[in-house]
Structures are given as C-alpha cells and as structure tokens.
Fold this sequence. Notes:
The protein has 270 residues and is an all-alpha fold. It folds into two domains: 17-77; 84-253, no CATH class. It is 64% helix and 0% strand. The protein is built from eight helices and no strands. It has helices spanning 17-22, 38-80, 86-107, 111-128, 132-155, 173-183, 197-217, 226-253. Helix 3 (86-107) runs antiparallel to helix 6, helix 4 packs parallel to helix 6 (173-183) and helix 5 (132-155) runs antiparallel to helix 6.
Amino acid sequence: MAGLMTKDGPHSYGNTVACRVRCADRRPCRSRDGRVDDQGHRRHVVRGEALHQAGRHLALDVAFRWTRRHVVAQVTVALTGGPVSSRVVVNFVAYQVAWFACVLGGAHGLPWAGVAVTAGAVAILLAGSPAPWRDAALITVVSLIGALWDGLLAGLGLLVYPSGMLLPWLAPVWIIAMWAGFATTFYVSMRWLLGRWWLASLFGAIGGPLAFYAGMRLGAVSFPDPVAALAVLAAGWAVLMPLTAWIAVKLEADPQAPTRTAANPQPLSP
C-alpha cells in the first residue's frame, strides 16, 4: 500500500479510483472520533481494487463470449457455407477413425484392417448422400490417382511401406483405402475447399507432408531420404489437393449425375 501517505494526508486524491468511489467527498477517511482512519482508507482501496479487477474480468469474459458466438460463427459460415451440421461431424470423425485404422494396420502388418474400417466409413457416406453415384465416382477416381501417385513414390524409393503392397509400382492397399476415405470428405467436412484453389494448394502442401510424417512416427512408412521425400510430398500435394477439389466440382456440376428424389427421400443438405 505504498504511496497512500502523501503531503495531503493518508487520502491520496489521484492515487486510485477506489478512493474516489468509496470516499465520495474525496476527503481523508476518518473514524467516528474524527481522527484520520488509515486502516479504513486501506480497506476502501482494497475493496475498490477488487471491484475494479472483477469488472475487468467480467468485461473480458463478455468480450470472449461475444467473439466466440459471433466472430467464430461468421468464420465458420464463410469457410463451410453454413453452420456445422451433424453430418459434417460424423464425416470428419469417420475419416479420422479410418485414417488411424489404415496407418496402424499398415504399421503392424494388418493392412486389410484399415481397408475394412474405411469401407464402413464409405458406406456411411453413401447411405446418407443426396447423390451417391456422384460420391462413388469421386471415390473411384481419387483412389486411382492415389494408388498411382503413392505407388510412383514407392517405386522411386522415396517411400518405403512395411506391408500391404501387392505390386511394386502400386500403393499399398491400406493407402488406397486411405485415399478413398479422403475422397469422402470433399462433399461434406472439406467442402469449404471447393472453388478455393490457392487455399487448397496451400492446405495440401502443408497437410500432406505432415500426415506422412505422422505416419512415419507411427511406423507405417519410412523415408530413406527425409528431406527429398517431404519436399516431393509437399510439391505433389500442392497439386493433388486442388486437383481433387476440381474433380469434385466438375462431378457435382454434371447434370447427368443421378440424385435422390421424392420416391427415395434423403437429406439434401451437404
């Protein structure tokens, strides 16, 4: 409480806001017998500072809640085209489960386990999709691209997989399944990438190598030359991510793609 005793007495007029609030007449706090009550003054200061801190915390809490409710909601709508639905959450969780099943299965000599889990995730998507043939076409095309791309990297010796390779220049079966699961996200949880080509390229250049690095840490893949492998992965995914998004847009715009009708009703929201 240093600084309370000044030439004006124990009540320092400009010392704290608390004194001006608690001592409205701005005169030194006095006891009943008229003597200067320094302890009373100190209590006023402590109480006032406590109220001041509580007010600051309340203001910060209100600002945080407002930001979370309004700003985050607006960003979510801007990126996804609408509020997050239960279908988006289910799709995201299903893909993450399939990804880990593929990686852990490939790392422990059980490549078909990941294939089985991914098949379940794909079935969930197709069952609730307003355009199952469109989704199936995207899954088929993306799986083929992934099989050839990762098979090429394996054939060049940039990537070494411990299990699941049926042919020397073809990706392991669990990698192909992972690509199929990846394709299920483009009309649901990663729909916000459609039409945002530069963002998709940046997202792929960063996310692709990080995913393979995580797989390496889990024992599903190894890099004889880590720098070269990660550099090639970054360059490749900078193209593959927007390419996949572009294919998804083209398939969605195809007027020949059949959709569910009133005879077979399904939710029409993506």
